[in-house]
Design a protein that fits this description.
8 strands, single chain, 2 helices, elongated, eight-stranded mixed sheet, alpha+beta, 165 residues
């Protein structure tokens, strides 16, 4: 899975844990019938760069391989969007979902992703879907790490730091 999509899906999973159904994408031709609040998540902007000089983080001993492995890292800054939808007449439920999103951003779990900014959108009628909608953006920061045992081997398997494999 694409590393950026992994971060988007992590936010969607956190919303799901709080009882807010979340989708990674929603095509206008397949808008589901909603009986309550739902979220659509996606990526607005992204920027990545080295976590250290030439991405190099040092070496560590790998017990499983029985040798030292070099560690490399990349940092990622993302702005995600969260579109919250609710049927007409459920503005209070949408407001509650906005508060839930705010709480998720304030509490930092051990996911390896730091959510550090939330811009909350106004609740408005969305003419395209017929639902109430509030678009929020979430700023986050993450680090991906990779290891290699052979000098010159390509770095292809960057893993989101802090996520169990």
């Amino acid at each position: 899975m694409n590393g950026f999509a992994q971060i988007r899906d992590l936010l969607a999973a956190r919303l799901e844990e709080q009882g807010i159904p979340a989708l990674a994408e929603w095509t206008r031709g397949k808008i589901p019938a909603l009986s309550g609040v739902a979220a659509v998540t996606g990526i607005c902007e992204s920027e990545s760069g080295p976590a250290a000089f030439w991405n190099y983080l040092g070496t560590r001993w790998d017990e499983e391989k029985g040798c030292a492995v070099e560690r490399y890292g990349r940092t990622v800054e993302l702005t995600l969007f969260v579109d919250l939808y609710a049927p007409k007449g459920q503005a209070a439920a949408l407001e509650e979902a906005l508060r839930t999103l705010e709480e998720l951003i304030l509490e930092q779990g051990g996911s390896g992703v730091s959510f550090h900014a939330l811009r909350r959108g106004a609740i408005e009628h969305d003419g395209a879907s017929g639902y109430l909608k509030s678009r929020c953006t979430v700023g986050c920061r993450a680090c991906f790490t990779a290891t290699r045992t052979e000098e010159g081997a390509p770095l292809t398997d960057f893993i989101l730091k802090g996520v169990l494999q």
